[in-house]
Amino acid sequence: MSVHSEIKKVTTETLRKMKFDKEKITMLTAYDFTTAKMVDAGGIDAILIGDSAANVMAGFETTLPITLDQMIYHTQSVVRGTDRALVIADLPFGTYQSNPDIALESAVRMMKEGGAHAIKIEGGKGISKSIKKIINAGIPIMGHLGLTPQSIYQFGTYKVRAKEEAEAEKLISDAKLLEELGCFGVVLEKIPADLAKQVTESISIPTIGIGAGPHCDGQVLVYHDMVGMNKGFSPKFLRRYLDLYSEITGAVSQYVKDVKSADFPNQNESY
């Protein structure tokens, strides 16, 4: 058994040490108390309250509509259900890009009201002033490079990023900058595996991959995708560990049948 599974509370320092010890880091999303409890009990190292809540919890097409207040609500719920994992919350679109003062205000609210242990924000050089201001206030930041879903209308597609040399070089330089600015880790989303390997080897902070191959220091998936609650979303990088969509719809169908036929509740289920 890994020494880290004995740790009472995972911290940003734990993740750095795991990279140094070459132990892979595990991360999943969660957006509510019940899921957080299960994910934490399963031994996950870090829980991300992703702005993907906009998609999987609220049914939006992109991550853009979710607000800071809504992200704080999801974060509070997850924190209450977590004992061991490091809890990292996304700052949503529009809460940090325009102005370092607004960025700090958003981050402070996420830590104070949400109870997050750290925040995650998308981008590199373009938001370096905001990153610096937040870190100087003592708030830990995880970066996010590659496919950054908050910029989806700029990209116009969810395809793999940084296949061209210029974009790959910018990504490497952004990763080094994030380390320099004091970020404790960086998510690499949908980039070629070789590039992710190069980035992982060129910085001393942990890289967490999603669709970025096996060479990252850790991996993250959206919980709803991993347990098969989403039907019809099948990117190449996703491994489904359950087919909960079928299990749950099957259970609901059986419940409907039992109620309609007056089989439920039976005598044992009545007072």
TrEMBL record:
EC number(s) for this protein? 2.1.2.11
Give the metabolic or biological pathway.
Answer: Cofactor biosynthesis; (R)-pantothenate biosynthesis; (R)-pantoate from 3-methyl-2-oxobutanoate: step 1/2
By its UniProt entry, which InterPro entries does this protein fall under? Pantoate_hydroxy_MeTrfase (IPR003700), Pyrv/PenolPyrv_kinase-like_dom (IPR015813), Pyrv_kinase-like_dom_sf (IPR040442)
Q: Could you list the residue ranges forming a coiled coil in this record?
A: none
Catalytic residue list: 189 (proton acceptor)
UniProt keywords, alphabetically: Cytoplasm, Magnesium, Metal-binding, Methyltransferase, Pantothenate biosynthesis, Transferase
What GO CC annotations are associated with the protein? cytoplasm
In which residues is Mg(2+) bound? 51, 90, 122
The molecular function terms in GO held by this entry are: 3-methyl-2-oxobutanoate hydroxymethyltransferase activity; magnesium ion binding; methyltransferase activity
Query: Which EC class is this protein assigned?
Result: transferase
Protein's cellular compartments: Cytoplasm
Q: Which reactions appear under catalytic activity for this entry?
A: (6R)-5,10-methylene-5,6,7,8-tetrahydrofolate + 3-methyl-2-oxobutanoate + H2O = 2-dehydropantoate + (6S)-5,6,7,8-tetrahydrofolate
Entry superkingdom: Bacteria
Q: Which cofactor does it need?
A: Mg(2+)
> How and how many cofactors are bound, per the record note?
Binds 1 Mg(2+) ion per subunit.
Give any single GO term for biological process.
pantothenate biosynthetic process
Q: Where does 3-methyl-2-oxobutanoate bind?
A: 51-52, 90, 120
Q: How does it assemble?
A: Homodecamer; pentamer of dimers.
Family of the protein in this entry: Belongs to the PanB family.
Q: What does this protein do?
A: Catalyzes the reversible reaction in which hydroxymethyl group from 5,10-methylenetetrahydrofolate is transferred onto alpha-ketoisovalerate to form ketopantoate.
Know the name of this protein?
Answer: 3-methyl-2-oxobutanoate hydroxymethyltransferase
Record organism: Chryseobacterium formosense
